[in-house]
Design goal:
With about 90 residues, the protein is an alpha+beta fold. It has one domain: Beta-lactamase Inhibitory Protein, Chain:B, domain 1, CATH 3.30.1450. The chain is about 20% helix and about 45% strand. It has a 4-stranded antiparallel sheet, with no helix packed on it. The protein has a two-stranded antiparallel sheet with strand order 1-2. A hairpin with a 5-residue loop joins strand 3 and strand 4. About 10% of the residues have low confidence. Keywords: Signal.
Amino acid sequence: MKLLIAMLLALATMPAMADFSFRFGDAVVATGDSPGTVIRKAGRQPDRIVQIENRRGATVGERWEYYLESKQVNFEFRDGRVVDIRELR
């Protein structure tokens, strides 16, 4: 029991990590989803698409930015799949 409590306390004090899903109304976008799935679930194209480059300048992915009422939601794509979801307030 003490071990369980210690583990829960340790998890509660960890810094916030990237989200693995985001809800657009009743639809949920999750890591692993394709670009088409994100557009369908969001109900629209992203407001902005930013190319992600490596140190040599080669494109390695995209960041799709959706500007919502009180926040921005970014979906990072690599190899045609969502690998990261971040909410910015």
